Amino acid sequence: MGSSYHQFCPVAKAMELLDERWTLLIVRELVIGSQRFNELRRGLPRMSPTLLSKRLQQLARAGIVDWIADGAETRYELSPAGRELRPIVEALGAWGMRWIGELGDEDLDPKLLLWDMHRNVDHAAVPAGRTVINFRFVDVPVRNREWWLVINSADRDTDVCDEDPGYPVAVNVLAGLRDLTQVWRGDRTWAELLRSGDMTLVGPASLQRALPTWFTLSTFATVPRAPASLGAAARG
Fold first, then answer.
1. Closest CA to 89 of 144, 24, 148
2. Which of 48, 56, 122, 141 has the smallest C-beta neighbourhood within 10 Å, fewest atoms?
3. What is the arithmetic mean of pLDDT over 157-166?
4. What is the CATH number of domain 105-214?
């Protein structure tokens, strides 16, 4: 646990645990359904495995996270105390979307975007069987440019691949990383990107039309934004 603020205030006592780097983001991942160590790592790709393990141990000692043996693996779940953090995480996300909406180039990550999208596939809307979507981010270095989502509607399962999985592709998506991130956050729409030419879809016309319906947007996409002048003031 981090250094003490030496205050009896319950906000100060809570922050002694929660304001350490990455801690609240681990809680965020657990809130949205990650349970395995590798799932947590993929939701926090810039966090080292060693630090993730350390933070999970701290959260377990604090009674926030339960470790559950599951065969050879361990599942991580929020305890009753941890589940009470859900509305706090959701409120922070809504506040950040409303007031701190500006994204720097360093905030954009194709791995994180596709990982978030894979958790929001509407399996009822995707064609039966296996559906593969290829994403090519035209403004990303070649080594990270191409990604694939492999959706299996029967198993309600979706894999994120950074190498060609070898299956036929249903739709190819060509777009800028920032542009697709803006769609995901609700700042723009699929239709706007297509009309502007900032996105191109390649595949059967019926699948091109249907593709936007295969995803629900980010939890925070519908949060009303603050007026631009007020948002700038909040950012200082």
1. 24
2. 141
3. 96
4. 3.30.1050.10
* Domain covering 10-84: architecture: Orthogonal Bundle (1.10)
Long-range contacts of 198-202 (CB under 8 A, 24+ apart): 199/173, 199/174, 199/175, 200/173, 200/174, 200/175, 201/171, 201/172, 201/173, 201/174, 202/171, 202/172, 202/174
Which amino acid is it at 219? T
Instruction: List phi, psi (to 5°) of 72.
Output: -85, -5
Q: In this structure, how many other beta carbons lie within 10 angstroms of the beta carbon of residue 132?
A: 20
Comma-separated ranges of CATH 3.30.1050.10 domains in the chain: 105-214
Tell the residue number behind the tokens 């950040």, with chain if given: 96
Q: Which of 24-33, 117-126, 176-185, 223-232 has the lowest mean pLDDT?
A: 223-232
Cα 183 to Cα 17: distance, rounded to the nearest angstrom:
34
**pLDDT on residue 217:** 87
Q: Where in the chain is the domain with CATH 1.10.10.10?
A: 10-84
Contact 120, 217 (CB under 8 A): yes
